[in-house]
Give the backbone structure.
Amino acid sequence: MDDTLLRRYLEYANSEEATAVLFVKKQIAQAKGHWVDILICCRCFESEDPLHFKFVTGGLFRRRIQPQYPPRSTFTKDGKFDERNYYLAVRAITWEAAHRDIEQQKSMRASHLRFKLAGVVFVRLRTDKNFFRDDAPPEIKALADNLNVRTNPLWDRAVRYINGPELVYRAKLVYLDQCTA
């Protein structure tokens, strides 16, 4: 296994682009059997989830090059299979094949699918049922039955158990179309 390829792949694997590829594969069913080429991506910083993006644009290229993987026996030493290093090598080889295949198809001006995904983060409104956290005592949860009356002295303690705003993320496919250039 080429150490420079592995080092380049590990650098890529920690990038925003690699996360965007996972996001696209999760959101677009047509990505199956295609290489994902990310052109522009912008993470959604309101959310803590790394798979939340404001938008991702790119292309889906049909897989023409099939990567050649090393045999598992090269990663077996003293009868013990080194699974971690094998899968790192497989992923690095797949990453290299994808980039080579995409570049060849771009240079030949092959047709591919263009896509744009957009995501939105919004605050979900609380209901009476989820106004207080699950770990709140029953007498505090009972205050949710009538939120407009705040004369009960338990409200001084209840304030500590109020649920914070719940951020919800939704992704939608803005467009997916055939590009011939």
